[in-house]
Amino acid sequence: MVYSHIATSLLKSKGIEPQLTAGHSLGEFSAVLTAGMVSFKDMLKIVLKRGELMSAADPEGKGGMAAVLGMDDAKVREICREVSKIKYVEPVNYNSPGQVVISGLKEGIDLAEPKLKEAGAKRVMKLTVSGAFHSQLMEKASDEFAKFLKNIEFQKPKCKIVANANANFLDEKNVRELMALQMKQPVSLV
């Protein structure tokens, strides 16, 4: 977020102003800052709180994430639905065609991995993360974050911002809800 802010500040100093912003996961917070909805100081507080809540959401380390490479999104969803009947896992980050990140219980990821490979995934790579981000396992953290955001003043955006939670536009009326929602919901920019 800090790097994005510096880069944006440099561009703005050269007269380059954004017409639209978007960011993936934490990048959405940079997009909100770039659009002038909140001060840099407040965004630092927001990002710190989000990190604290997400880190505390899984103290036992039961959740995780894995990148699935070389497989159709629909097939990944189908396998995750099947595995979730036993142990929760779901696709959460649609990064590009043929690259989807799944999130959920580590046991669910372990059950999904051989099924994904058997169905044609070129690779299933477990990610070094401290939780099952963008999944329902972040629900409590998301709810706490929504309460925290009620105390932050957001301005009308100076340009359009695409929200991760629903690929619609963020504004001063829905920003709190959508920024909290993206913690427990898949990133969807399409």
**β content, as a range?**
15-25%
User: Which strand order spans the largest sheet, edge to edge or round the barrel?
Assistant: 3-4-2-5
**General shape:** globular
Series of H and E elements: HEHHEHEEHEHEH
Distance between the termini: 22 Å
Report the helical percentage. Answer: 40-55%
Which whole number gives the mean pLDDT?
Answer: 94
What's the count of strands? Answer: 6
Largest sheet: 4 strands, antiparallel
Low-confidence blocks of residues: none
Quaternary structure of the protein: single chain
What's the helix count?
7
Determine the structural class based on helices, strands and strand pairing.
alpha+beta
The radius of gyration is: 17 Å
Characterize the structure shown.
- The protein is α+β, with helices and mostly antiparallel strands.
- It is built from seven helices and six strands.
- A hairpin with a 2-residue loop joins β3 (89-96) and β4 (99-105).
- The radius of gyration is 17 Å and the shape is globular.
- It starts with a helix and ends in a 9-residue tail after the last helix.
SSE topology:
Blueprint: H1 2-13, E1 20-22, H2 27-34, H3 40-56, E2 63-69, H4 73-84, E3 89-96, E4 99-105, H5 106-118, E5 123-126, H6 139-149, E6 160-162, H7 175-181
Helix pairs in contact: 1-2, 3-6, 4-5, 6-7
Task: Give a brief outline of the structure.
With 190 residues, this protein is α+β, with helices and mostly antiparallel strands. It has helices at 2-13, 27-34, 40-56, 73-84, 106-118, 139-149, 175-181; strands spanning 20-22, 63-69, 89-96, 99-105, 123-126, 160-162.
